[in-house]
Amino acid sequence: MYDHELTLGGRAAFQYDLLRLVKRKELPIGDFPAFLFFNPGRVHSVMADVSDETLAHRQCFLCPEGLEDKQQTFLWDPTMHEGTPRYAIRVNPFPIFAPHFTISTVRHEPQQIRGHYEDMLRFTTELPEYTIFYNGARCGASAPDHMHFQAIPMNSLPMQVYVDQHGRLPEFCPSARWIQSNSIEDMTTRFFALVDEFARKQQQPTCPQAMPPRPDDADFNIISWYNGHYNTVILFRRQSRPACFFAENPEERILISPGAVEMCGVAIVSTEDSFQRLTANKLQAIINEVSITV
Fold it and tell me: In this predicted model, what pLDDT tens digit does every residue of 4-56 receive, in sequence order?
């Protein structure tokens, strides 16, 4: 599917070609190997306006009517017995890694993990060479009005690599929690126990311009993968973007919009200025700022 779409000459072919030009540098934080990517092709995601007003007046780009030209779709039912496919798997036309897939519900429904977490785990066994991630509606999701996951090659995220190597979480993200089990049922019970616990800890944003959490749902990023066991890291959030994103002084402005990828150690910026200004200490401060304090 991936190789075929890149032969069609659509937006995906152009954007994946641009990945060769992405600038990268290491931003190690203690023993945690974080990275910084300067990727101009991600400007639409970094700068996405996801206010309720904007969403109400734009065509959803995960629905059939809003797809990119020549974008292909593979339909899949994770339970393998319901008969009607629940998800559409597509090549992401604005990639961070190669390959990079979007897994969205066929039905247009809000970005909400309840009713979908078990499917996320099933995807990890269906796609064992990939890490599956989820961005909460106000935690880096550029399509908060349409339920979706994303899939990237295993070992792309320092957080996943660190947990597999050390059997514990790094200190990089203070509100991260890791669960592991051989059972989807046990994972689901433990996952929602954590979600319910942190829903009671919702905190006010430190930056007035950043969108606060929605009162009816905990805000978080999630990554899941399968290595003989089911694994999930949940990263609980207090706000969508850091104060430096909104800084009036251009010398202090860093255009970063943290989603699961950033929260797990790969910072994406879309301007040269932001690439030059973002240091390891500043990245750690940003992750602390947007995370729930525990």
Answer: 666 656 676 777 888 888 999 999 999 999 999 998 877 666 666 656 666 66
Residue 223 bridge partners (DSSP): 133, 233
Taking the C-alpha atoms of residue 85 and residue 78, their distance in angstroms, rounded to an integer, is: 8
Q: Could you give phi then psi for residue 198, rounded to 5 degrees? A: -80, -20
Sequence-separated (6 or more) residues with CB below 8 Å from residue 132: 103, 120, 123, 124, 149, 150, 151, 223, 224, 225
Is residue 111 within 8 A of residue 217, CB to CB? The reply is no
- For the segment(s) 2-290, the CATH number from 3.30.428.70, 3.30.565.40, 3.40.50.720, 3.50.30.10 is 3.30.428.70
The H helix count followed by the E strand count for the chain is: 10, 11
Domain ranges of the chain: 2-290
123, two tokens: 């995807």
Exposure on the CB side of residue 144, measured as CA atoms within 13 A: 25
Residue 139 half-sphere exposure toward CB, CA atoms < 13 A: 31
In this structure, the number of other CB atoms found within 10 A of the CB of residue 131 comes to: 27
**pTM of the prediction?**
0.92
CB 109 within 8 A of CB 235: no
